[in-house]
Amino acid sequence: MRLNIIRNGILVLFLLMLGNLFYLQVIRGGYFAHLSLTNSIRVVPFEGARGQVLDRNGHVLADSIKAYHAVVIPQDIRDKKALFAFIADVLGVETSVVEKRYLKNKLTPFSPVTLAGDLKRSQAIMIEENAFRFPGLMVLEKFSRRYPEGAGAAHLTGYVGKADPFKTGGTGYGLGAEDVVGYSGVEEYYDAVLRGEPGGRQIEVNSRGQQTQLLSVREPSDGRSITLTIDRNMQRAAHAALAGRRGAVVIMDPSSGEVLALASSPSFDPNAFVDKESRERVSEYLQDPASPLLNRAVSGAFPPGSVFKIPVTMGGLEERKIKPSTTYDCPGYFQMGDRTYRFPHAWGMQDLPMALAHSANEYFFHIGLLLGADGMAKYARVFGLGSRTGIDLAFESRGRLSGLSVGRWYKGDTLNMAIGQGYVLATPVQLARLIATVENLGMMPQPHILLSGVEAVVRPQPVHVSFRKDVWDALRAGLDAVVALDTGTAHALANIPGTVTYGKTGTAQAGPGKEDHAWFAGVTRTDKRVIAYCVFLEHGGSSANAVMLTREFLTTLRDQGSI
Predict the structure, then answer these.
(1) 230 close to 216: Cβ distance less than 8 angstroms
(2) How confident is the model at residue 217 (pLDDT cuts 50, 70, 90)?
(3) So what's the architecture of 232-284+299-547+554-559 in CATH?
(4) Are residues 147 and 61 in contact, defined by beta-carbon separation less than 8 angstroms?
(5) Other Cβ atoms within 10 Å of 442 Cβ, number
(6) Beta strand pairing call for 400-401 and 348-350
(7) E-state strands within 13-59
(8) Packing angle between helix 361-382 and helix 309-318, nearest 10 degrees?
């Protein structure tokens, strides 16, 4: 009897177990299979701070500010309407604003979507406290880039943004769609140095998107900071002088090639590319016909006008085609076959120093014809024209320098080339290096922006341009006369107290119906330092306008104690 009871009890228990297994595997099998599939591993990313960009005196040009961002994993969302309403209430905006932001930023079901950035601490706490109500919602610490100088150093610093498809699509960059990278300026050139290494938490979440356990943690690492050769006060002076004009100013130390200021105008505010609420401003920059994103100092190539007479002069002297005492009549016109070239001034008989001081085109037409197109191109290349300087900024132009190799060539083309027009284009940084080479009597410096922050930077060694001493002496006498002579084209620079300046002006035609380009490439000495520079005004009219702009920033630099 007792044995039957035990047997029956075991049978009942066995039947209950079978029934429970049937219930779990057959009746509720699909439900639990779904739960097992939705228990998964998530990676919550942590950003590494991007390194600072500093000027030579430690002033911040680009910085990273910690900020709180509310993000959500799309596939974990249970109730979008409730989620968007909650975030909108915290931010004090319409629900449609949050919804549009979600749709715009969504990439994949697993990629975090930013619903709100740069949260106030109180907003971040409120969202964090209510995150349990909304699966997939979390608050992350991220970093926002800030540029204290704004438009004043935009072409130097560049800006940051999300990596484009080219950089994330199998090109070896190893970047994700949400990663921030540099665009233009040092942000792009030194991106690998400045960019931090991301970290994150690896967590397991259940079907409700709630964390069940922490699997691992990898701490992020910050990017390295870099110090530039730039002097913030010089940069501000150059930027202010260009206000309202198109053009560029490049200032460098001729002995080292350190770029002390590099300004391009019109400029843009790099902060607009960081602030998601400034999309309209970014769109305006992209559509602006004045091309504010173009770095005219490095990427813009323009006819150099009479500044090109420097290599033409050196070629004529070096090959003994002329002497400093050689004279030519400069009556205000030049006859070539049946064509007459006319000029605004009739200078009469000119020797070389006078011709440089007055920028008498007729004189250099004679030298150009003596040297020929290829001869002039040869000496221009000696000074680095027609090739990139190697400055550490993205998208540098090589300019253009062509001789007879272009094909059909006429004597009129040779005349145009002799005065820096036609098949000749140069960048402001190239002409700054050219005049620095003159100051160094042949040592051509390597222009560079980086002062420190990157180990083992290998820069090309300075090139020595070899000419006879009497050739350098003759050129310098002429460039001194440009400023010192009462009738010199840059005489306005002669009476700035405490400074001694020489250089070469240039006015270059820009095409029918367009204002000329204005140039001045010069060197200024004070008891404190020596600077070489190039000033360029796009469609700025006469070179006298470039001279007056030069006087403006030189006066500012002197008054603030920079020179």
Answers:
(1) no
(2) low
(3) 3-Layer(aba) Sandwich (3.40)
(4) yes
(5) 16
(6) unpaired
(7) 40-46, 53-54
(8) 80
Say whether 2 sits in a helix, a strand or coil.
helix
**Dist. CA 487–CA 507, nearest whole Å:** 16
Any idea which residue has 């036609």 for tokens?
Answer: 422
* Cβ neighbours of residue 47 closer than 8 Å, sequence gap 6 or more: 140, 141, 142, 143, 180, 196, 198, 220
Q: d(Cα 80, Cα 90) in Å, to the nearest integer? A: 15
- CA-to-CA distance for 286 and 368, rounded, in angstroms? 41
Q: In whole angstroms, what is the distance from residue 270 CA to residue 446 CA?
A: 27
Query: Rounded CA gap, 378 and 387, in Å?
Result: 12
- For 479-528, write each residue's pLDDT tens digit: 999 999 999 999 999 989 999 999 999 999 988 889 999 999 999 999 99
Instruction: Classify 196 as helix, strand or coil.
Output: coil
Query: Please, which residues bridge with residue 217 across strands?
Result: 201
pTM: 0.84
DSSP string, 466-507: P--HHHHHHHHHHHHHHHHSTTSTTGGGTT-TT-EEEEEEEE
Looking at the DSSP assignment, which residues form a beta bridge with residue 237?
Answer: none
Beta-strand pair 247-252/530-537: antiparallel
**Nearest-10 crossing angle of helices 80-91, 121-129:** 150
Domain 42-228 has CATH 3.90.1310.10: yes
Residue type, position 52, single letter: Q
Query: 3-class DSSP state for residue 560?
Result: coil
359 dihedral zone (left: phi>0; alpha: psi -120 to 50; beta): left
Retrieve residue 181's tokens.
């990278």
Do residues 182 and 392 lie in contact, with contact meaning Cβ atoms separated by under 8 Å? Answer: no
